[in-house]
Specification:
Layout (H helix, E strand, L loop, with lengths): L4 H15 L15 H13 L3 H7 L7 H21 L3 H4 L4 E5 L3 E5 L4 E18 L1 H5 L5 E17 L3 E8 L14 E10 L4 E9 L4 H4 L20 E11 L4 E9 L10 E14 L4 E19 L2 E2 L10 E2 L3 E17 L2 E14 L5 E13 L7 E2 L4 E2 L17 E15 L2 E16 L4 E12 L3 E13 L1
Antiparallel strand pairs: 1-2, 2-3, 3-4, 3-22, 4-5, 5-6, 6-7, 7-8, 8-9, 9-10, 10-11, 11-14, 12-13, 14-15, 15-16, 16-19, 17-18, 19-20, 20-21, 21-22
């Protein structure tokens, strides 16, 4: 077993405590407001970052239909009765802090001008990997194992409606990808935002804006692992990221400069990365839509060893393809993406490529592509997040509760991925895989997933992978 007992035990204990934490709150008696207090409360309300945007900023799953309906009814009732009842206790005491549980531990001021959420995610995986005789003969081992795939602690929030921050730490140390970068820090940044649009800037460790599959949260992917071509994606690095949305957030753009934090030598480690997405067609509040996007990254290098290697969409498997070190003086990454959604159906496809400028050698180029289709059997939808240009988490209409007839949401998915790492004298290998997936979304925060993956290593042979995941996300 590839277990790290002490660390995993500590991570599991922390997550069990988080999952069963009890709500906390504050109560007080009614007070009489002065005219100045009322005016200050009304002014603060106009400046506050909306709750739905705060949930999106903290990568929180959407509310269920019943929860969203109840929230809107409460807001409408508050507006109708505001003139009669006068100001609430919260309006009279805007600077008072409240500690409570709401899909994570929340600490907020009554006027919402300071908000902090403590949450995270836990993913427990089990995999059975079996290759045919030719695969085993090439040195790729069979495997039956389990692991804490991700055990994240997440602290995020907003200060005075403008300044945002987030710290994501992976206690399991399994999210670094295949380039030996920092295993524990995922995001660690501070930034500025503007209420109503989330236009702004981030400075620190954050994910570079490249490709739809890569920028989708690991808790919201249709399959357990991202597709093969994401081997080219730059992932998390230290830098500055600017973003903006226009045309009612139908067009979104991100651009940033980053210092590559992975393996390799050389004096240049600067990445310039950009992504732009658009919704040329949308209907019924994004229940039906067409999404398109482009990504580009130039990586400045000087006699720098570039290497691409990839597992067959199963984190516990060996790496089936590997270019080895390629001496390079620069890299250009390209990406094109498209997605189509029709209520409970969604189709997504991408092409990504890498051109490696050789150092005292010929340039080489590699590429990959994938296509995935998902179907929410129980009729829910994958929420489209305009501010991120990705699909988000699923919120079951009837969360799991057999006593009241709720069984959660069920999703089926199928994907084909292809990756070609052979070019000129570099023979990294060519790999494709077929994946069938089923996911049971018990609640917006809990899910069970199962994937069957059929990798084919060209010129060698086939494998079969069956893997399961339990996911807890707050």
């Amino acid at each position: 077993m590839s277990l790290h007992g002490d660390r995993r035990a500590r991570a599991c204990v922390c997550w069990i405590a988080l999952a069963v934490a009890a709500p906390l709150g504050v109560r007080a008696e009614e007070s009489v407001a002065t005219e100045e207090q009322v005016e200050r409360a009304e002014a603060a309300e106009k400046e506050v970052l909306p709750e739905d945007e705060f949930r999106e900023l903290t990568d929180e799953a959407p509310l269920t239909e019943d929860q969203e309906r109840e929230r809107k009814e409460q807001e409408a009732e508050a507006e109708r009765t505001a003139a009669i009842r006068g100001p609430t206790y919260e309006e009279l005491h805007p600077e008072e802090l409240n500690l409570f549980w709401s899909r994570g531990i929340r600490l907020e001021r009554n006027d919402k001008r300071f908000r902090m959420k403590i949450g995270g995610r836990l993913q427990l995986d089990q995999a059975w990997i079996r290759g045919d005789s030719s695969i085993r003969g090439s040195g790729l081992d069979d495997e039956t194992d389990y692991e804490v795939r991700r055990g994240w602690l997440d602290v995020s929030g907003v200060v005075r409606d403008r300044f945002i921050y987030q710290a994501q730490i992976d206690l399991a140390g399994n999210s670094s990808g295949d380039d030996d970068r920092n295993r524990y820090i995922r995001q660690l940044y501070a930034g500025w935002t503007r209420p109503g649009t989330l236009d702004g800037v981030r400075v620190g460790f954050t994910k570079e804006p490249f490709a739809m599959a890569e920028t989708t949260s690991s808790t919201a992917t249709a399959m357990m692992e991202r597709p093969l071509p994401m081997v080219f994606a730059p992932n998390y690095n230290l830098g500055i990221l600017l973003n903006s949305q226009v045309l009612d957030r139908r067009v979104s753009g991100w651009v940033g400069a980053f210092r590559y934090s992975g393996r390799g030598g050389g004096g240049k480690r600067l990445n310039l990365t950009a992504r732009v997405t658009a919704l040329p067609w949308t209907r019924d509040e994004d229940a039906k839509l067409l999404h398109v996007g482009l990504s580009y990254s130039h990586q400045f290098r000087s006699d720098f060893d570039v290497r691409y290697r990839r597992r067959p969409e199963a984190h516990l498997a060996d790496r089936y393809v590997d270019t080895g070190d390629i001496a390079s003086d620069g890299v250009d990454l390209f990406g094109a993406e498209a997605a189509f959604k029709w209520h409970s159906w969604a189709v997504q496809a991408e092409f990504t490529g890498s051109r490696v400028e050789g150092h005292d050698r010929d340039d080489v180029a590699f590429w990959g592509s994938y296509a995935v289709v998902t179907w929410m059997v129980t009729g829910e939808e994958r929420i489209y997040r305009r501010r991120r240009g990705t699909f988000g988490n699923v919120a079951p209409d009837r969360p799991f509760d057999p006593a009241s007839g709720g069984w959660g949401a069920f999703e089926l998915s199928a994907r084909f991925s292809y990756l070609d790492l052979d070019n000129r004298d570099v023979r990294g290998g060519t790999l494709n895989s077929y994946t069938l997936g089923a996911t049971w979304h018990l609640t917006a925060n809990h899910q069970l997933s199962g994937n069957w993956v059929r990798p084919h290593l060209h010129g060698v042979g086939n494998s079969n992978v069956f893997q399961l995941r339990f996911q807890l996300n707050y």
